[in-house]
Specification:
The protein is an alpha+beta fold. It is built from four helices and five strands; from the N terminus they run ααβαββββα. A five-stranded mixed beta sheet has the order 1-5-4-3-2.
C-alpha cells in the first residue's frame, strides 16, 4: 500500500474487510482491520473486532451462502462510502427477529459509511432495505400491483439513473 493515497488505501482495506462477512477471513483480519474500540452505530453494545466477528457469525448462520456485490466506493479523507447488494438464501434465524429460515433467496441493497483512524476501521453506519428483505422473505406483503420492476417484493430492476 506504499505510495497509495490515503483514500485508495482506505478503499482497499474496506473491500478486503468484507471477506470477514463472506466467511473467507476471521479474527486475524478483524484484529488487523478494526480498531479496538470500533463502533457499529446500529446501537449494539459490542465494540471492536468482536462486534464484527459476531455480526459475521450471525449473518452466515442466517444466510450460509451470503455474498456481497460491491458497487460504487467513494473515499474522502478518513471516510469511505459505498453501496452494495447482499445476496443469500435464508436458512437460519434472522438476526434481530428470530425469524426461522424460510429457504428463500434475497437480494438487499445497502449503503454504508466507514470512518477510518489511521489504517483501521473505527466507525460504521448503514442503511439497508430491511423492508424489501422482509417482503422477499414473505414476512410482510409487497406493495399493491406487484412491487414494480423487480417483481413482487423484490429489489427494483437496474441501477441508479445515468448522469446526463
Amino acid at each position: 500500500m506504499a505510495g497509495q493515497s490515503r483514500e485508495a488505501r482506505n478503499k482497499e482495506i474496506l473491500v478486503k474487510s468484507l471477506d470477514i462477512l463472506r466467511g473467507k477471513a476471521g479474527a486475524e483480519l478483524a484484529n488487523e482491520t478494526y480498531t479496538a474500540d470500533y463502533t457499529d452505530n446500529s446501537g449494539a453494545p459490542e465494540r471492536g473486532p468482536a462486534r464484527v466477528l459476531a455480526v459475521a457469525e450471525q449473518a452466515r448462520r442466517a444466510f450460509p451462502d451470503l455474498d456481497y456485490d460491491v458497487g460504487q466506493v467513494i473515499a474522502e479523507g478518513d471516510y469511505v462510502a459505498f453501496r452494495l447488494t447482499m445476496r443469500g438464501t435464508h436458512e437460519g434465524p434472522l438476526p434481530g427477529s428470530g425469524l426461522p429460515g424460510t429457504g428463500k433467496r434475497v437480494e438487499v441493497r445497502q449503503l454504508h459509511m466507514i470512518r477510518f483512524e489511521g489504517e483501521r476501521i473505527a466507525e460504521h453506519w448503514a442503511v439497508r432495505d430491511d423492508i424489501g428483505m422482509m417482503r422477499q422473505l414473505g414476512v410482510i406483503p409487497g406493495p399493491p400491483g406487484g412491487g414494480g420492476p423487480g417483481g413482487p417484493g423484490g429489489p427494483p430492476a437496474g441501477g441508479p439513473p445515468a448522469a446526463g
